[in-house]
Amino acid sequence: MKTTKPTKQRKRMYLAPVTDRYRRFSAPLSSKLKDSQGTSSVPVRKGDTVMIMRGDLKGSEGKVNQIDRKNYRIFVDGATREKVDGTTIPVPIHPSKVMITRLNLDDKWRKKAMERKVVVEKSVVVKEEPPKKEAKKKRTTRKVTKESGGT
Q: What is the pLDDT of residue 148?
C-alpha cells in the first residue's frame, strides 16, 4: 500500500534500492524524440545529450558525463561553477530539470527496452473503451383515480 505521509515518502526515497532509483531518473524527451520514439520520457543515462530547463544554467546543452544515484543528481558537460580559489567544479542537476535532446542507444538492452515501451504504449492507445451502458428509463408516475383505488 502506498502512503501519503511526506516523512514516509522521503524515507522510502532515501532507502530505495538501485533498481527503483533508476526509474526515478526519468526526464522528458524533446518533441522530435517524442515523435520518433513514441514515448514521452525515459531514464537519463551517461552519454545522453540533455538541455537544462531550470536554474541558472537554463538553456545550456551538454552530454551527461556522470550520474550520482545516491543523491539523485546528474552532471552535464559545460555545467560548471567556479569556486572562490579559482577551481571549477561540476554542478549537480536533478534529472527532472533537464530535457533529453539526443539518446545514447549504444546499449542493446536500452534499445530493446525502448521498443518494448513503444509497443506497450501503442497497445494502450489502441484499446477501445468498453461500450457505455444505456441510460435508465425514467419511471412514469401514474395518476391515482377513484376508479383504480390507488393501485
A: 62
